[in-house]
Every structure is written in structure tokens, then in C-alpha cells.
Design a protein that fits this description.
The complex is a heterodimer. Chain A is of the alpha/beta class. Chain A folds into two domains: about 325 residues, 3-Layer(aba) Sandwich (Rossmann fold); about 100 residues, GMP Synthetase, Chain A, domain 3, CATH 3.30.300.30. In chain A, about 30% of the residues lie in helices and about 25% in strands. Chain A has eleven helices and 21 strands. In chain A, a hairpin with a 2-residue loop joins strand 18 and strand 19. Chain B has two domains: about 70 residues, 2-Layer Sandwich (VC0802-like), CATH 3.30.2130; about 60 residues, 2-Layer Sandwich (Alpha-Beta Plaits), CATH 3.30.70.260. Chain B is α+β, with helices and mostly antiparallel strands. Helices cover about 30% and strands about 40% of the residues of chain B. The chains are: A alpha/beta, B alpha+beta.
């Protein structure tokens, strides 16, 4: 099986342009009529849906940001009545509130198609067993890969995250052909596999789809050697749909963006001017087919570039380079998005037990991301017992876990021990090497 | 009787303990006793000096996180069973001990026991029923 949807994936670019234009016109009309937020934004720049005549007019439309999602929390940007929404997912917001997305039945189908295309790109077909180690829940990773595998007609194994010994046992016993998880977890799993004395030849694995965090060629080599497989990138973000916005083909030369569904632009992070192909900037998406929560020119904050060169696999869709970084301060910890502002919100709630200065240290130990939050004890909060300090630590650690959905180590430091800076405070130290 | 103690929060960082003793030494403050409760990341230094109010001030000025509080202090004979006799008095009166430490003056045949409890008044009242010797001069 070479393509999941040959017509869409190999569509000549002139035809694709026409399809994108038709879909954009319909989309703009839809959101103008159904979503107050978009109507107000378009009215403000005196733009009517009829002004959008093709995909080339996209640049006239205002951007959408995470702040817009927050301002319309939870369902304000939905473009269909609630009865048509069949699923909700959510990811981290910048403060206490989550970023919420809703899917119609068609959206779920399109999302599954993106993941099914990715699986086929990685060499899977209806006979494959797909081991899904992404978390299942509000996070889109698990259910996205799962529905993709089912739509393909493959066998989905919804193991979800965690419990490494069981992961290894099931990979072996069920004879999985493909594994889906974060690249850092894949490296960890490969190491545990070796430690458990299971040889690569005892597994049936041929490929893996890895995403939800940035990774590198060095990590790819490690995963491929550890499992004896081909490791492919799968890209996505919950705001656009989840995994499957793009995926790598067998040539491993960039991530094909499913351009018939998600229109990508690269823009300058300072001027916000569109940059065109082969230039580095922030990738921005317009969801051409989405019904539940269509987003127009959504700023992902991911820094990358697009290549429209012909790909040997026959697909005509542009290829995205590896994500090089972010244009905001979001951290990705074990696949979970964490904003420093979320951490600050939790610290503020601790009252005067800790001082106003803090530092976030991100690292990678045994191939798993670690996050340490250093705070200063205040004199007021200092009792003379160990338990009074352990209590502050335990409370902060518990609050972080529930707000960030990832565990953080809390380190209580002496007052004035966190370096002060005169300019912009350096609060984040990321020691990870990709 | 109540004995005043100073407690200092110290991160487990190289040189912190030296900095603390240095600060006291410069001010010619003498340590009578010092104990450290340690965890993997931090320690709490508990000490009694010959001038606690001044020691507190000096340490604060040197940027240490300090607090002072009162412990129950009793004196026992430096013989087997000395500590046991006191602990049973606490136990019989249902007084929880948060921590305690002791030190002895061999030449005087005395041992001093310092006890941290939640309610000093209640503990003193309970101990008054026993023939407990309050702590005298160190």
C-alpha cells in the first residue's frame, strides 16, 4: 500500500490550489456567519467573505492566537451547534485554563485520515498491528493514532502511556509492526528493552511514528538502532486537530503537511509578513475542512520552514523541516506542553511561603525530560522542623502535578540564592540536548 | 524550664556551614551546642550560643534564614536510664515529641535534654508533677 488517499496526497499542485481556494472561501463564509469572534475581527478590517476569492487572499485575514482561544473559553470559537460536537480535547493553556477544541463527526474522520496517511507513509497497511503508547485522554496523541489505525483497518493496541515492563511485554507478545509514542520515550523504551534482555529479533517492529515534542536526527539514529526500525516524524497540535497534520514519508526528508486539509504558511515572527518557501519562520495553519472549531491563520509558535520541491515518494504536499524552536516560552516536557506562566500561577497561590523569585531547570535524565522548579523559602514560612519545609514542597509538587499534568521536582532554596538579573529575568534553563 | 534555640535553614551546598560558623566567629559568638537535621536537599541547623539574640541578628544580616524558638530543657544524671525517665513522663501525659537532642558534661556527670513539643506550657505543667530537674547552667 503506497498511499492511503492517492488522489489527495498526489494531487497536482494546480488542482490542489483550486481545491484549497474553494475550501477557504467556504470556510470564511462559514466562520463569518457562525462565529462572532471572526465576524468582529473581519469587520474591524472591513473584510467581507466575498473579498476572499482564492487561497492567495488568505494573507488578508487576521491571525488567530492561543489568546483568542482563551478569551473564548471554553466553546466560544465553535462554529457549529453543540449537538454536532461529538468530542472534546484540550491541551495546556498559558494560565489556569485549558485550550479547548471540539470535533464534529467529520472532523474526527478527517483527523483519523491524517493519521492513517501517516501510518501508510511509514509502511503500514490493514494487516498491521499498531501499538499506541501516547496517552489517551484529553491529550490528542493516543486517540488520534488509535482512530488512524482503525480507519486504515489495522489493529490498534491502546496501551496508553506508562508501565514500561507491560509495554515491552505487549510489543513482543502482540507482534506490533508499528509503535506510536514520543521520541524520548522511544529511546527510553529501547534501553529498557536491552536491559530486559529482549533482542530486537524477538520483536516484529518495523516502524515508529514519533511526535508531540521536537526531536533530532541524532535521536532518530538512536531509536532506529535501538529497535531496528525506521523512525518517522508525525506532527500535529491539538488546536489544528492533533497528530497527523503532517507526517514523514519513507524518504525521511521532511514532514509532508496534509495541505488539502491544513493550509500552512511561514511568517516572519517580528513583522508577521508571509515568507514563502525555504525561509525560516513561524508556521501558521488554516484548517480548510474543519467544522467544529475552524481556525484561520492560527499561530503555532513553532519555528520551521517549508519545502515545495518534488518528493521521490510521489506526494505533492510540501515538506516541513524539523521544528527548530518556539517563538514563545512554551516548554515541552515528556510530550506535555508547559507554559512558565502556568508555573507562576501555581507559585503565586502558595502565598508568602515562598519568595517571588523562581527558576525552572529543564533537563533530560535517562532520556526522560525532567523539570525542576527552584523557589526560595521565606523567613516567615521557616519553622525549625524538616516537616514544615517538606509540607511546602509536597503542596507545591501536588499543585504542579494537577495544573501541569506533569510531575515537577520542587527545590526549596535559601532566600537570595536564585540569581537576580537587572534586565529580563532568566527564569528558564533548558539543558536538554537534541 | 525553657531554653532558647536558634534554627537556620541551609541548602545542601558546599561552603554554607563554613559561612555560618564564620559569621558567628567574626562576632566572637561561641557555640554551646549545634545539631543538624539533614535531608538530601537541605539541612536545619539547630544551635544554642552564648548570646542567642546577637547571633540571630548577625545571621540575619549575613542573609541566613533564621528563626528562634524555645525548647523544654531538663537535666538528668549522666547514667543509664537518664533519658528513659524523662521520656516516660512525656509518654504518660500524652505529649508528642517533635524532636529532641541531648548532650552531656562528663566532668560534671550531667546530661542535658532539649525537647521540642507543640505546646510548651502543657509540657511544663505535666513535668511539674514529676521530680524533674530543670536545666541549670550548661
Amino acid at each position: 500500500m503506497k498511499y492511503f488517499n492517492r488522489a489527495a496526497e498526489t494531487m497536482p499542485r494546480s488542482e490542489l490550489h483550486a481545491l484549497q481556494s474553494e475550501r477557504l472561501k467556504a470556510l470564511v463564509k462559514r466562520v463569518y456567519e457562525n462565529v462572532q469572534h471572526y465576524r468582529a475581527k473581519m469587520d474591524a478590517v472591513k473584510l467581507k467573505p466575498s473579498d476572499i476569492k482564492s487561497i492567495d487572499d488568505l494573507h488578508k485575514l487576521p491571525y488567530t492566537t492561543k489568546a483568542d482561544l482563551r478569551a473564548n473559553y471554553p466553546f466560544g470559537l465553535f462554529a457549529v451547534p453543540k449537538r454536532d460536537i461529538v468530542r472534546i480535547h484540550a491541551s495546556s493553556g498559558t494560565t489556569g485554563k485549558l485550550t479547548v477544541v471540539g470535533y464534529t463527526q467529520n472532523d474526527i474522520r478527517d483527523w483519523a485520515e491524517g493519521c492513517a496517511r501517516a501510518l501508510v507513509m511509514a509502511g503500514m497497511d490493514e494487516n498491521s498491528v499498531v501499538h499506541v503508547s501516547y496517552g489517551y485522554g484529553l491529550f490528542t496523541g493516543g486517540l488520534g493514532a488509535h482512530y488512524g489505525a482503525e480507519l486504515l483497518g489495522a489493529t490498534a493496541v491502546p496501551v496508553s502511556a506508562g508501565n514500561t515492563p507491560r509495554q515491552l511485554m505487549l510489543l513482543k507478545d502482540f507482534g506490533a509492526d508499528c509503535i506510536c509514542c514520543t521520541p524520548s520515550y522511544a529511546i527510553y523504551l529501547a534501553e529498557e528493552l536491552a536491559k530486559a534482555g529482549i533482542s530486537k529479533s524477538e520483536l516484529n517492529l518495523k516502524a515508529g511514528l514519533f511526535g508531540a515534542e521536537p526531536w533530532s536526527e541524532a535521536m532518530r539514529k538512536q531509536i532506529e538502532a535501538g529497535f531496528g526500525i525506521k523512525a518517522y516524524d508525525i506532527y500535529g497540535l491539538s488546536e489544528i486537530c492533533g497528530p497527523g497534520v503532517g507526517a514523514e514519508c519513507v524518504t525521511q526528508s521532511g514532514t509532508h503537511i496534509a495541505e488539502d486539509m491544513y493550509y500552512p504558511e511561514i511568517v516572519d515572527t517580528d513583522t508577521l509578513e508571509p515568507l514563502g518557501y525555504n525561509k525560516k519562520g513561524e508556521i501558521v495553519f488554516t484548517t480548510l475542512t474543519k467544522e467544529g472549531i475552524p481556525l484561520i491563520r492560527y499561530r503555532t509558535r513553532d519555528i520551521t520552514s517549508l519545502d515545495d520541491g518534488v518528493c521521490a515518494c510521489g506526494r505533492t504536499h510540501v515538506r516541513m523541516a524539523r521544528i527548530e524552536g518556539r517563538s514563545d516560552d512554551m516548554l515541552i516536557i515528556r510530550g506535555v506542553n508547559v507554559f512558565p506562566s502556568q508555573i507562576e500561577t501555581v507559585l503565586l497561590s502558595a502565598g508568602d511561603a515562598i519568595g517571588p523569585h523562581y527558576r525552572i531547570v529543564v533537563d533530560r535524565a535517562d532520556n526522560l525530560d525532567t523539570i525542576e522548579i527552584q523557589v526560595e523559602l521565606t523567613e516567615k514560612a521557616f519553622g525549625d522542623t524538616v516537616k514544615s519545609i517538606e509540607k511546602i514542597k509536597a503542596r507545591l509538587a501536588g499543585d504542579m502535578q494537577s495544573h501541569l499534568s506533569v510531575s515537577a521536582k520542587i527545590t526549596i532554596m535559601e532566600p537570595n540564592s536564585i540569581p537576580r538579573s537587572e534586565g529580563k529575568a532568566v527564569r528558564i534553563i533548558d539543558n536538554r540536548k537534541y | 524550664m525553657l531554653v532558647n534555640q536558634i534554627a537556620v535553614f541551609l541548602e545542601n551546598r558546599k561552603g554554607r556551614m563554613a559561612a555560618l560558623s564564620d559569621a558567628l566567629s567574626k562576632e566572637k559568638i561561641n557555640l554551646i551546642e549545634l545539631f543538624i537535621a539533614d535531608t538530601t536537599e537541605f539541612g536545619i541547623v539547630r544551635m544554642i550560643t552564648d548570646d542567642n539574640p546577637r547571633a540571630l541578628k548577625v545571621l540575619k544580616e549575613n542573609g541566613f534564614t533564621v528563626t528562634s524558638n524555645n525548647l523544654i530543657g531538663v537535666e538528668v544524671a549522666d547514667v543509664p536510664g537518664g533519658l528513659a525517665s524523662i521520656l516516660s513522663a512525656f509518654d504518660e501525659n500524652g505529649i508528642d515529641i517533635e524532636y529532641l537532642y541531648s548532650f552531656s558534661r562528663k566532668e560534671a556527670g550531667k546530661a542535658f535534654i532539649l525537647v521540642k513539643v507543640a505546646d510548651n506550657d502543657a509540657a511544663l505543667k505535666a513535668l511539674a508533677k514529676y521530680n524533674v530537674k530543670p536545666l541549670g547552667k550548661f
